[in-house]
Specification:
By secondary structure, the chain is an alpha/beta fold. It has three domains: about 35-405, TIM Barrel; about 425-595, Glycoside hydrolase family 3 C-terminal domain (Rossmann fold, 3-Layer(aba) Sandwich); about 650-759, Immunoglobulins (Immunoglobulin-like), CATH 2.60.40.10. It contains 22 helices and 28 strands. The strands form eight sheets. It has a six-stranded mixed sheet with strand order 13-18-17-16-14-15, sandwiched between helices. The relative contact order is 0.10.
């Protein structure tokens, strides 16, 4: 209750005044001593040798300092090698450590490990500088065995609930900091405009505004009002910039993109997070843009990020990406030249992550005059500042009793709420909800595995190891049987992810069922391991759908990374539910959605394609709609961005725009009425689109500019008022500058439209 103390005191004073009683004297503010961070950093920096500075700019994975890894069966099995650790911290002056080793550690083991590291760093090193520990906690504290996990980013975006996303991030921060880790490599601020990409699920979808809004919410949840708080961490926006748009669709491959498009679609989420939330750190795109690896791109990392955007925080490389300038991208003939290129480009902290090659070469480069020591000073100043802001110089140790809050009931309830709201009902011809006594056949590869509910970065890096998942997490099958009765739920797998098991047995079981729930799934795969050559649903799973489709109600549940092509399967189904990677509560949430225990409210954060060679986003150009018959019906996705059904119905009307002639300094204000015209309570998201009818750069057919989620009882209506600054309607012109050109615009909201003019 401590955080509410000042608020409760204010309320008490107000209540006393209102009742006519004398108010108590105002409390005398307590002045706590404040650390002069800038002065402390300057003083410490002046004492550091060249070797100290190079060490502070070096980051190793914990596996490089260990003698035994944790396993799925033994989350406490990790063993640190204290000799290696002392060598790294005392002799090499290592500044940062990351990652788990093998599998998620228990909370107690994390606390012991962090305490050991910080004791050596603060007691045995020359300058007593604490270690900056970082971790990939991307959908909850996913490398703490007892922690709370949530849906991945596409699922959170499907909720259209920014408050929920911020609350989920706050849980992640609290549980991460509880074990002594002050920094997480999240959120992903990449915009998901390439559905083939193996990390599509880690984005907030294909829309710029959606990614910016959810990115900001996540940073607020992670960092709070101050990152020194015991329940907050430093966030890391990644991967600056353009990483999510590989030309081939494969991870860490080249991006070919005009600068205008890069600025229009991929830059805003980063810029907004930096400007509006005080984002503390940035991780760099592992790939190359137009032939230049971003880790060696001074124009992007220094001129754009530092100069134009004004980012003052720490820039960290991704895994081995400085080394890859030499042996992968081949722009540096030697490792030493790779280090020079990266530091010159603007890298502060190198995720090496196995040895001290970067450290030693950096010292050599400074001694040779190839890099000025002042460049290192700027990077180290930023790193030390972050450590001070995190409160690590005051107390780098985890509180022993902090583990008690990890995985608590309230966090689990929030995870369930997030899973429920993330589900998107794509199709329903009346087959749903399923009745209470219905005999259900569950079939498909996603029924009795935990990994396809979670996806990558879940207890292990790839998320595939079933043994790594806590047994307390129910599979979808277990959730159905627990809630619907084992006697009413039969399971026949039918297929693996890409192989046939027994289609005939599945078909026979379908004949005896009242409804068939076919759970289609994609095997989790992070980064390159998640690359695919074909967006089509695996042939074995398509055959399974055909085998159990013969007139009985057929429901498809879609688990996985990205929108696999299901056009034929969709045509055979009576209902389709997109679930993505809903997390540990996904099994329960899917059952409750199909039963109608709650009313689905999710909305697609991406366009669901109908065909593998027509991957066009909703905010396409008018010319993208051209078809083979010389008409304009070429944009024909299976399901559009923002689509999502409910068990009730909504109607919108009475769109009112009081002022239709505006200047650049004005705000577009309008209202619309939304009514629940169905028989049960439901939540609806009102999405606001605007299109520029004519512009000097071909305008998109529409762009999302705002959204709001509301809950209405049956028969209830509400008037919503929106305010959008005209300056937010800008696009990047031929000079790559954001502009709003005078002209006519069209507002589209709730099936209604209205025109307005910018003078």
């Amino acid at each position: 209750m401590k955080p509410f103390g000042p608020l409760l005191l204010v309320l008490a004073v107000l209540a006393s005044a209102a009742s006519g009683q004398d108010a108590p004297p105002a409390p005398v503010p307590i002045e706590l001593p404040k650390i002069d961070i800038d002065g402390s950093v300057d003083d410490l920096l002046a004492q550091l040798s060249l070797e100290d500075k190079a060490g502070q700019m070096t980051q190793l994975t914990i596996g490089a300092l260990s003698r035994a890894a944790a396993t799925a069966q033994d989350p406490d099995g990790h063993r640190i090698d204290e000799e290696k650790l002392r060598h790294a911290l005392v002799e090499k002056r290592l500044g940062s450590i990351i990652n788990m080793d093998g599998a998620a550690f228990s909370a107690k083991h994390w606390q012991t490990l962090i305490t050991t590291i910080q004791e050596i760093a603060t007691a045995e090193t020359a300058h007593k500088i604490p270690v900056l520990y970082g971790i990939d906690h991307v959908h909850g504290a996913n490398y703490i065995h007892e922690a709370t996990l949530f849906p991945h980013a596409t699922g959170l975006a499907a909720t259209r609930n920014l408050e929920l996303a911020e609350m989920a991030a706050a849980v992640c921060a609290r549980e991460t900091r509880a074990v002594g880790i002050p920094w997480t490599f999240a959120p992903v601020l990449d915009v998901g405009r390439q559905p083939l990409w193996s990390r599509f699920y880690s984005t907030f979808g294909e829309d710029v505004h959606l990614c910016s809004a959810f990115g900001e919410a996540m940073v607020r949840g992670l960092q709070g009002s101050g990152i020194s708080a015991p329940d907050r961490v430093a966030a890391c926006g990644k991967h600056f910039i353009g990483y999510s748009f590989p030309f081939s669709g494969r991870d860490r491959t080249q991006v070919l993109v005009p600068e205008r498009y890069l600025r229009e679609y991929f830059l805003p989420p980063f810029w907004d997070a930096i400007d509006n939330t005080g984002l503390k750190t940035i991780m760099v795109n592992s790939s190359e843009i137009n032939g230049i690896p971003v880790h060696a791109n001074h124009s992007i990392l220094t001129k754009l990020l530092r100069g134009q955007i004004g980012f003052e925080g720490v820039v960290v490389s991704d895994w081995e990406d400085i080394k890859k300038l030499h042996d992968y991208h081949r722009v540096a003939p030697t490792m030493k030249e790779a280090v020079r290129l990266a530091v010159d480009a603007g890298i502060d902290l190198c995720m090496v992550p196995y040895d001290f090659s970067f450290t030693d070469l950096l010292v050599e480069l400074v001694n040779e005059g190839a890099i000025r020591e002042e460049v290192l000073d700027e990077s180290v100043r930023r790193i030390l500042r972050l450590k001070y802001e995190l409160g690590l110089f005051e107390d780098p140790f985890p509180a022993a009793d902090a583990v008690e809050i990890i995985g608590n009931v309230e966090a689990g309830e929030l995870s369930l709420r997030a899973a429920r709201e993330s589900l998107v009902l794509l199709k329903n011809d009346g087959a749903l909800p399923i009745g209470p006594e219905t005999r259900i056949l569950l079939t498909g590869p996603g029924c009795d595995l935990r990994s396809p509910l979670h996806g990558p970065w879940s207890y292990t890096w790839q998320g595939r190891d079933e043994e790594a998942y806590p047994r307390s997490i129910p599979t979808l099958l277990h959730a159905f049987q627990a809630a619907h009765g084992r006697e009413n739920v039969r399971f026949v797998p039918g297929t693996t992810y890409d192989g046939i098991i027994d289609l005939e047995r599945a078909a026979n079981a379908a004949h005896a069922a009242d409804v068939i729930v076919c759970v289609l799934a994609e095997e989790p795969g992070a980064e390159q391991a998640g690359n695919i050559d074909d967006l089509a649903l695996p042939a074995a799973q398509a055959r399974l759908v055909r085998a159990v489709s013969f007139g009985k109600p057929l429901v498809l549940v879609l688990l996985g990374n990205r929108p696999r092509i299901i056009t034929e399967s969709d045509s055979l189904a009576n209902a389709v539910l997109w679930a993505g990677y809903p997390g540990p509560k996904g099994g329960q949430a899917v059952y409750e959605a199909l039963r109608g225990i709650f009313n689905p409210s999710g909305k697609l954060p991406f366009t669901y394609p109908r065909a593998p060679h027509n991957l066009v986003a909703y905010d396409h150009k008018f010319s993208d709609t051209a078809d083979r018959h010389f008409g304009f019906n070429g944009f024909n996705p299976l399901y559009e961005f923002g689509h999502g059904l409910s068990y009730t119905t909504f109607e919108s009307g009475n769109l009112v725009v009081p002022v239709t002639e505006l200047t650049l300094a004005d705000t577009l204000e309008f209202s619309i009425d939304v009514a629940n015209t169905g028989a049960r309570e439901g939540s609806e998201t009102v999405e606001v689109f605007v299109r520029d009818l004519y512009a000097s750069i071909t305008p998109p057919v529409k762009r999302l500019r705002d959204f709001r989620k509301i809950t209405l009882a049956p028969g209830e209506s509400r008037t919503l008022t929106f305010r959008i600054p005209v300056s937010d309607l800008s696009f990047h012109n031929q000079q790559n500058m954001p502009v709003v050109e005078p002209g006519e615009f069209e507002l589209q909201v709730g099936g209604q439209s209205a025109k307005f003019t910018v003078l």
